[in-house]
């Protein structure tokens, strides 16, 4: 297991470019299975989760070619259906969450999908009911083989239908949309997730010949078509990385410019950081964060304590709350961080408390942070990264701390952040991989 050694207390200065969005590209790569023609995808981040999924597709028989530094083409002409039954395939699926989105395209195009319980962050219960019920609504049969821990979904031609999802699941919506595009007749999905990841998937599918309307809303209408064809797609910048860089700049009192952020797709993220008192300016499609000696958390209009809570899009993504929590530890004022979706994502605050942060973990979902206003520096220490976003949050804490910290289990960070130490060291950080 690799670790990062971080020398704290160095300011950053300069420009940084966000990578392509992890959670979008996982959907897009799965969608390439819906056609026998070539689909070229640009701005693919070089991260563990994405590389594992690309490798999985290769092993399934998809022809994958690297076209440029971050571009790949995918041609799913000869998919090896027998391989999908193998223990090797099923074991690999269980190492990443994104593999669950193979189900929709596989059932739609080949009438069969097998999958083991997908991996991803251990951040609380992550049920898959929305996925399975949605695909069952389209007429598929669903079986769970308890002995092998495997889900098996089979169908003849899927049949469009109306459905109201029990929750606006991001990967669930993606799966159902990918299944519905090749179904017979019209599918209507109400309470659909509408994150930019899902919007981008729908736009790609329409370029492949699908007929999806209602994109960016929670009511999607999909008229099934007979087949899809090849196209090109460019992945948006990763909004979670953009948010992570904003938080990092504030914590380390740094002046940075985050380049080409696709501002219009960031939703409420910039405003949420402003509520913590962080100044940031939109300059064209860049975000400029000036060096700030202090940042003061706002109160609500009635004077009550600020609450930062996650919500389904266009609310604040839960994936940025860990970063916002860390940033609040050096703000002026107090904030309640309320992680509504996941119940095991806030436990990493113990590590911040060890570093000297003032945090009260009220329950698994809520933490009150009392900011030090930079009057007291966090202390460098030995840390371990429990999940991807706690990992980047701890990295930010270590970069702002006094002394040296070591973060182990950085595979969690590598899952979602491309060459993070190289990119941060280029603007002044001191991070060594050992
Ligand atoms: C690969 C990928 O894209 N992963 C993202 C995706 O995961 P993923 O698609 O797996 O997450 P879901 O949207 O399904 O939901 C996550 C959890 O929140 C609960 N839930 C969800 C929606 C809702 O309205 N109410 C509710 O309670 C679900 O029961 C589940 O436990 O979306 C999550 C929520 O934005 C993000 O944290 C993950 O980074
Ligand atoms: C929780 C996340 O990832 P995954 O869904 O892949 O576990 C995340 O990206 O923050």
UniProtKB/TrEMBL annotation:
Residues that bind phosphoenolpyruvate: 22-23
UniProt subcellular location: Cytoplasm
Key words of the record: Cell cycle, Cell division, Cell shape, Cell wall biogenesis/degradation, Cytoplasm, Peptidoglycan synthesis, Transferase
Binding site for UDP-N-acetyl-alpha-D-glucosamine: 97, 319, 341
Protein's UniProt keywords contain Cell division: yes
Reaction(s) the record says it catalyses: phosphoenolpyruvate + UDP-N-acetyl-alpha-D-glucosamine = UDP-N-acetyl-3-O-(1-carboxyvinyl)-alpha-D-glucosamine + phosphate
Signal found in the keyword field: no
Pfam families: EPSP_synthase
Active site, renumbered: 121 (proton donor)
Protein purpose: Cell wall formation. Adds enolpyruvyl to UDP-N-acetylglucosamine.
The protein, known as: UDP-N-acetylglucosamine 1-carboxyvinyltransferase
Protein source organism: Bacteroides ovatus
């Amino acid at each position: 297991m690799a670790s990062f050694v971080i020398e704290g207390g160095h300011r950053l200065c300069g420009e940084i470019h966000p990578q392509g969005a992890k959670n979008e590209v996982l959907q897009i790569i799965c969608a390439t299975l819906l056609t026998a023609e070539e689909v070229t995808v640009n701005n693919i981040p070089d991260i563990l989760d994405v590389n594992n999924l690309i490798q999985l597709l290769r092993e399934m028989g998809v022809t994958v070619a690297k076209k440029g530094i971050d571009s790949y083409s995918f041609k799913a002409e000869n998919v090896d259906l027998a391989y999908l039954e193998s223990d090797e395939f099923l074991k690999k699926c269980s190492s990443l969450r994104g593999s669950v989105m193979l189900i929709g395209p596989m059932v739609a195009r080949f009438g069969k999908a097998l999958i083991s319980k997908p991996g991803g962050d251990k951040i609380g219960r992550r049920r898959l009911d929305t996925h399975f019920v949605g695909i069952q609504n389209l007429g598929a049969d669903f079986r769970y083989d308890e002995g092998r821990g495997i889900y098996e979904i089979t169908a003849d031609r899927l049949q469009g239908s109306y459905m109201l999802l029990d929750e606006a699941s991001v990967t669930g919506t993606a799966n159902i949309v990918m299944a519905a595009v090749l179904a017979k007749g019209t599918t209507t999905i109400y309470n659909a997730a509408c994150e930019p990841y899902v919007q981008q998937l729908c736009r790609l599918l329409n370029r492949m010949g699908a007929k999806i309307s209602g994109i960016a809303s929670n009511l999607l209408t999909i008229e099934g078509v007979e087949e899809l064809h090849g196209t090109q797609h460019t992945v948006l910048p990763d909004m979670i990385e953009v948010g992570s860089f904003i938080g990092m700049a504030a914590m380390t009192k740094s002046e940075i410019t985050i380049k080409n952020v696709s501002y219009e797709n960031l939703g409420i993220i910039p405003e949420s950081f402003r509520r913590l008192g962080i100044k940031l300016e939109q300059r064209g499609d860049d975000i400029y964060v000036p060096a700030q000696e202090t940042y003061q958390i706002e109160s609500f209009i009635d004077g009550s304590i600020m609450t930062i809570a996650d919500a389904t899009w266009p609310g604040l993504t839960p994936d940025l709350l860990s970063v916002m929590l860390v940033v609040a530890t050096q703000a002026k004022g107090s904030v309640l961080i309320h992680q509504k979706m996941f119940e095991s994502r806030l436990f990493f605050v113990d590590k911040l408390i060890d570093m000297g942060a003032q945090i009260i973990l009220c329950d698994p979902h809520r933490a009150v942070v009392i900011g030090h206003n930079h009057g007291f520096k966090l202390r460098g220490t030995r840390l371990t990264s429990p999940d991807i976003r706690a990992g980047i949050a701890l990295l930010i804490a270590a970069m702002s701390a006094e002394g040296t910290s070591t973060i182990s289990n950085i595979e969690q960070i590598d899952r979602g952040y491309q060459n993070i130490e190289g990119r941060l060291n280029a603007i002044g950080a001191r991070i060594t991989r050992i």
